[in-house]
Amino acid sequence: MNNFSEDENWYVCSLVVQAKPAKLEQVKAAILAIPTAEIHGVKPEEGKIVVTLESDRQLALADRIDKVKEIDGVIVVSLISNYIDEQ
């Protein structure tokens, strides 16, 4: 989902979300409700979810990470990588 103009940066990060296994489906649904969030992998027995988030603004990306952290059933969110596409 790259919709940026020539003079803007595009920010992408990947996360591992550790959730309570009993709330995994609720957590996944809440993550997917966040703009640009995509789920790339799930280990249901461990409650782990691999997620990417994207934005054309760094602060918006930070806000989206905070939204993931606030989801009921999330134990911890780990930032795995952060990428900036500089235009």
TrEMBL record:
InterPro entries: Chaperone_NapD_NO3_reduct. It comes from the Bacteria. It is found in: Cytoplasm. One of its GO terms (molecular function) is signal sequence binding. GO terms for cellular component: cytoplasm. Keywords: Chaperone, Cytoplasm. PANTHER family: CHAPERONE NAPD (PTHR38603). Belongs to the NapD family. Chaperone for NapA, the catalytic subunit of the periplasmic nitrate reductase. It binds directly and specifically to the twin-arginine signal peptide of NapA, preventing premature interaction with the Tat translocase and premature export. Interacts with the cytoplasmic NapA precursor. This is Chaperone NapD.
